[in-house]
Design a protein that fits this description.
Blueprint (H helix, E strand, L loop, with lengths): L21 H6 L8 E2 L11 H8 L12 H10 L7 E4 L2 H12 L5 E4 L6 H8 L3 E3 L13 H11 L3 E5 L11 H11 L3 E5 L21 E6 H4 L8 E4 L2 H10 L7 H11 L2 H22 L13 E5 L3 H10 L2 E2 L1 E2 L8 E5 L3 H18 L5
Parallel strand pairs: 1-10, 3-4, 3-5, 5-6, 6-7
Antiparallel strand pairs: 2-8, 7-8, 9-12, 11-12
Helix pairs in contact: 2-10, 3-10, 4-5, 6-7, 11-13, 12-13
This protein binds pyridoxal-5'-phosphate.
């Protein structure tokens, strides 16, 4: 591999993310503590008390276990596999980046199924690869055309394909047969199956069934499942060879002691994740009913966030922020007429609906 063919990092556009835009809030004189943040999509009830207590009790005076042994063993038991098929990272992000770094070379093609999470493209670009991005269309409810996709994969032979399932931001969840079909089409190519939001899916299928194929790496986000974005924790499941490669390429101590302790406690607290799933279903029902009379339709989603079609996402986001509410403007996903709303507790959703009622009227010409 020749490092000089990798592009300068500064030449690759930054990815837009949800989360509080602190500089913008400062400029506009808005107190970040007063903002209800619907722009990120994590556990709607926040971290469980057990997870918080475990993180707080971690010994910060020592280096963390760089092998993340106890947590990997617990994850392996959970997924009924051996610990050398599990690697942990500083959020799912670190594992996605490591995968691009390890399995993409300058001149390779990477496939990304859009519209989707922007970091796949950036990680591939940093590795010197070119991204092919077929897009699922709104007119097809954002469902990918699997026949066309399969033909494209066989023609372009991408070395790595990133598939987000359920997909951010559309919430579309492909079944096991569809994902297996794509993995088969890839041949020697690697399918990085990003299941960052799978924890919120009702009756999710078990993606580890695809691991014996050898060309699938499953990535999960405990950050999202357990509402700990500030702590950061993710893991990858794969063949022992793939996991050994991740381990060899990983920076030392990237999973800190508090995150390791939190992860172990989270695995003992399945009820909290189940409560998050239940709350998300209730929230979807409430939002769907409350938004319809304002003329806004919540798209179906298997995950803990929903797309809503609006006249102008950038203007709507700005107007809602004036009301102390942040939603994700999906323009950066190529969807300038959609915002994404993450799952939050019902009282927060009631405030969102009140603000939307006011703001949507104001954004319609002649109405305000
Ligand atoms: C699809 C997807 N994968 C991965 C991540 C990052 O997960 P983590 O916070 O665990 O790094 C995100 C964050 O928004 C995401 O949307």
């Amino acid at each position: 591999m020749s490092a000089e063919h990798r592009p300068p990092a500064a030449s690759i556009p930054a990815v837009v993310h949800g989360g509080l835009p602190l500089e913008e809030l400062d400029r506009r004189g808005i107190d970040p503590r007063a903002v209800l943040d619907f722009s990120v999509s994590v556990h709607p009830l926040g971290p469980s008390p057990r997870v918080l207590a475990a993180a707080a009790a971690a010994d910060l005076g020592r280096y963390p276990d760089s092998e993340v042994g106890a947590l990997r063993r617990a994850l392996a038991a959970r997924h009924r596999m051996s610990a050398d098929q599990v690697w942990a990272g500083n959020g799912a992000s670190e594992l996605l980046w490591l995968a691009a770094h390890l399995w993409l070379r300058p001149g390779d093609r990477a496939l990304v199924l859009g519209p989707t999470y922007g970091e796949y493209r950036r990680a591939a670009a940093l590795a010197g690869a070119t991204t092919i991005e077929p897009r699922a269309e709104e007119s097809r409810d954002f469902l990918p055309d699997l026949d066309a996709l399969e033909r494209l994969i066989r023609r372009e032979r991408p070395r790595v394909a990133f598939l987000c399932n359920p997909n951010n931001p559309t919430g579309v969840y492909l079944d096991g047969a569809a994902v297996e079909r794509l993995a088969a089409a890839l041949g020697e190519g690697l399918l990085v199956l990003d299941e960052a939001f799978a924890g919120f899916v009702d009756d999710a299928w078990d993606a580890t069934a695809l691991l014996p194929r050898g060309n699938v790496l499953v990535v999960r986000s405990m950050t999202k499942d357990h509402g700990i974005p500030g702590l950061r924790l993710g893991y990858a499941l794969g063949t022992t060879d793939r996991i050994a490669a991740l381990r060899a390429a990983a920076p030392p101590w990237s999973v800190n002691s508090a995150a390791q302790a939190a992860g172990l406690a989270a695995l003992e607290d399945d009820a909290h994740l189940e409560a998050g799933r239940r709350a998300t279903r209730e929230i979807a029902g409430y939002l769907r009913g409350a938004l319809a009379p304002i003329g806004l339709a919540l798209r179906p989603s298997a995950a803990n966030f929903w797309l809503v079609r609006v006249p102008d996402a950038t203007r709507l986001r700005a107007a809602l922020l004036d009301e102390g509410i942040l939603v994700r403007d999906c323009t950066s996903f190529g969807l300038p007429h959609h915002v994404r709303i993450g799952s939050r507790p019902l009282p927060d959703c009631e405030r969102l609906v009140t603000a939307l009622r006011h703001v949507v009227l104001c954004l319609r010409p002649d109405d305000c």
